[in-house]
Write a structure and sequence with these properties.
By secondary structure, this protein is α/β, with parallel strands linked by helices. 28% of the residues lie in helices and 25% in strands. The chain has eleven helices and 22 strands. Strands 1-2-3-13-4-14-20-16-18 form a nine-stranded mixed beta sheet, sandwiched between helices. Strands 8-7-10-5-6-9 form a six-stranded antiparallel beta sheet. It has a five-stranded mixed beta sheet with strand order 11-12-22-21-15. The relative contact order is 0.18. The chain binds manganese (II) ion (2 copies).
Amino acid sequence: MSLAWQDYTEAQFQEVMDFAQEYMDFLSKGKTERRFLKLAIEKAEAAGYRNIEEIIKNKETLHPQDKVYMNQMNKSIALMHIGNEPLEQGMNILGAHIDSPRLDLKQHPLYEEGDLAFFDTHYYGGVKKYQWVTIPLAIYGVVVLKSGKVIDIEIGDKEDDPVFVISDLLIHLASKQMEKKATTVITGESLNVTVGSIPLKGEKTQAVKANILALLKDKYGFEEEDFISAELEVVPAGKARSCGLDSSLILGYGHDDKVCAYTSLQAMLEAKDLERTAVCLLVDKEEVGSQGATGMQSKFFENFVAEVLYAMGEGQDIQCKRAMLHSAMLSSDVCAAHDPNYADVSSPNDNMPKFGYGLAFNKYTGARGKSGCNDANAEYIAQLRAVMDQENVHWQTGELGKVDAGGGGTIAYILANYGMRVIDCGVPLHNMHAPHEIASKADVYEAYKGYKAFIKNMK
Ligand code: MN
Ligand code: MN
């Protein structure tokens, strides 16, 4: 295990930087699960992937080297590149999640107080609430009308767009606030986004709110009650940026887990002439426990495999079970990188991932006594060591910080329920779940290389 930067030739260094730039552009445009999925489908279709719905509808037959995908409610996607081997011999699966911590608008979001209009929010995922005040914010999502018409909303990231903000108390009047615990200094109910201050001319009461409603009707074509069937997400405004004098890092919103999702997707789309079938799973709802129709606990992936088998003329239940059982998976999610500013929570003795050492494998996650973890088999890890070393991937191992300091989980255990081989791995970050997270460009590139190696060489 060595610092990847030390090993790059000039050409490789340039490749790392170019790859990072493409990732940053994608991340800046794909901040929510819906946006990420839309961009992923565009890329996949350009690479020859077809929607399984079309195959089913036309009663088409699928063959080795065909590429198909299933879109689950515009929030999760499974892509499959069928290999020459029978599917029941298993798949090489890359999995990551595309939802990130954020603030969702409530169903009755708009209100007026003190001649100002606000959006009331409910935070999604684990956030330090005090980090979300005073920073420029954007709003993305959909408003669905009773007619079924979907209105796409994206405000705050175009040059001329306004941004949004949540106010904080000025330091001059904050003597009481400053004594509070960090968990209560900003509460969930005080995360109210300022959206306007101009009254509607001639209106006597709630005139600022009335003006915002008029604007929404005029500019976006929806009414107040349409908020009820909307999904609007408040995220940090602005692009992902190179960070540091040497530009070696990336500061951006949503690395967790779009950095693993993007690198997995790129590796998947570049695969050619596969012996073993490859799959890329990009799923929603990991940050809130993976439940629901679009979370990993949903059966949509298993159903997709069954549909592919059926379209290949092999639709027996046992074949689907075998395909799942014989698979190998990289359950990719970001992990904590050693941060010298907070060294006291790092796992000692080379058991903490570090920036620049490449793709990080976590044999297990969980909390306290590995509670809730997926613990990968030693036999599987030995196979992975061989696969990674064969392609000169920089990789490391690590824990999610010091034992007893905290913990966390991923989607790994859900796929492991099928009896397949699964391990957690991913790109190390500083300040995970903050509005802007930090990743190393070298690790982003090595993750991509590692995923390519896995698709090509895992047996
Ligand atoms: Mn994650
Ligand atoms: Mn997370």
